[in-house]
Each structure stands twice: as structure tokens, then as C-alpha cells.
């Protein structure tokens, strides 16, 4: 089959990532672990939701912690799953501009977008650390019957954004070192 003519059956859903450098290998391993952790959090949320439905509607009982648990777990799954989505390039992507640009401008655009993403995610991580620390130092708890210490769910922000930052740094390094092409596009485009 000629290059570029893959069918849906032969196309790989997971893009090939270069892991020849130890940093790239570490970042990919961390990102995959985040994907597994995120999936497990979603499964736990589904199981707790089913348990909550059974308690409320089958046993006619009250639920005290389930709703809050599911909310915090889904938020944590989203934040912890960020690096895995970045690793797979699974985010919403509009290739129109990168495809239209010549190779050198495409490279420049990749540096601008990855650099901007690094700065924004770094800022979110810093504010996440600050919020987590305040919640921990002041022993904040939720205003529900469960009274979960908010430092526990808030920890997902600095951890998720920090690991996302590692994956973005790996992507930036891979493009800068020529190990990967900008936006994962082939050079002939």
C-alpha cells in the first residue's frame, strides 16, 4: 500500500512517539501512568454512582459522600489525564494552518504554541499549588456531611498540571531536537 493511503483498519489510533532519549521515555511513561490512573478514577466514579443509585432507589437510604466523591474523582481524572491526552495528541486539533505553512514557519508555530501552552499550564500549576497549600495549611473541609479535607481533591490541580507540563516540555524538546516533526505532520505536507 503506498504511503499515506492507510485505511481505517490499518491506521494506528496511537501516534508513534520518539522515546530514544531518557527524558522522552520518562515523560511518556509518566503520561501513560496518568492515563491508567485517570481511567481507574473514572471506573471508580461509575461504580460509586451505581452504588449511590442502589442505596437511594432500591434501599430508600440516604447518601452522604457519594455525590461529592464522584465530582472530585471526575475532576481529578480530567486533570490527571491531561498528560496522556497530550501524549496521544488526542486534544482537539485544527491542522489547517500548520498544513498550509512551509516547514520553517510550521516549526516556528510549533514553538509558539508549545511555549504558550507551557507558560499557561505553568501558571495554572503555580496557582494550583497555592490553592492546595492554603487548603492544607488552614485545614479547609467541604461544607457537606462528609467534610472531606479539601487539600485532598485540590492536590489534583498541581499534580495534574505539573505532569502535563512535563509532557509539554517533552514535546517541545522532541520538536527542538528534530526527533519529531511539528504537530506530528510529515515533512512532505
Automatic annotation (TrEMBL):
PANTHER family: 2,3-DIKETO-L-GULONATE TRAP TRANSPORTER SMALL PERMEASE PROTEIN YIAM, TRAP TRANSPORTER SMALL PERMEASE PROTEIN
GO BP terms in the entry: C4-dicarboxylate transport
Function: Part of the tripartite ATP-independent periplasmic (TRAP) transport system.
Protein family (similarity comment): Belongs to the TRAP transporter small permease family.
Domain Tripartite ATP-independent periplasmic transporters DctQ component: 46-174
Transmembrane segments: 33-57, 69-88, 109-132, 152-176
Membrane topology reported for the UniProt record: Multi-pass membrane protein
Keyword presence, Transferase: no
UniProt key word Transmembrane: yes
Assembly and oligomerization: The complex comprises the extracytoplasmic solute receptor protein and the two transmembrane proteins.
Keywords: Cell inner membrane, Cell membrane, Membrane, Transmembrane, Transmembrane helix, Transport
Originating species: Paroceanicella profunda
GO cellular component terms listed in the entry, alphabetical order: plasma membrane
GO molecular function, one term: transmembrane transporter activity
Name this protein carries in UniProt: TRAP transporter small permease protein
InterPro entries per the UniProt record, alphabetical: DctQ, TRAP_DctQ
Cell compartments where the protein resides: Cell inner membrane
Amino acid at each position: 500500500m503506498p504511503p499515506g493511503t492507510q485505511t481505517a483498519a490499518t491506521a494506528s489510533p496511537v501516534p508513534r512517539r520518539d522515546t530514544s532519549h531518557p527524558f522522552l521515555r520518562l515523560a511518556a511513561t509518566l503520561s501513560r501512568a496518568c492515563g491508567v490512573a485517570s481511567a481507574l478514577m473514572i471506573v471508580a466514579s461509575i461504580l460509586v454512582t451505581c452504588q449511590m443509585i442502589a442505596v437511594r432507589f432500591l434501599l430508600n437510604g440516604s447518601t452522604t459522600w457519594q455525590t461529592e466523591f464522584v465530582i472530585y474523582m471526575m475532576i481529578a481524572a480530567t486533570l490527571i489525564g491531561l498528560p496522556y491526552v497530550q501524549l496521544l495528541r488526542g486534544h482537539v486539533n485544527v491542522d489547517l494552518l500548520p498544513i498550509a505553512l512551509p516547514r520553517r514557519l510550521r516549526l516556528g508555530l510549533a514553538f509558539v504554541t508549545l511555549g504558550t501552552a507551557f507558560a499557561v499550564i505553568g501558571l495554572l500549576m503555580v496557582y494550583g499549588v497555592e490553592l492546595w497549600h492554603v487548603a492544607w495549611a488552614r485545614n479547609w473541609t467541604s461544607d457537606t456531611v462528609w467534610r472531606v479535607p479539601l487539600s485532598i481533591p485540590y492536590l489534583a490541580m498541581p499534580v495534574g498540571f505539573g505532569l502535563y507540563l512535563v509532557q509539554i516540555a517533552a514535546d517541545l524538546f522532541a520538536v527542538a531536537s528534530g526527533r519529531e516533526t511539528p504537530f506530528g505532520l510529515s515533512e512532505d505536507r
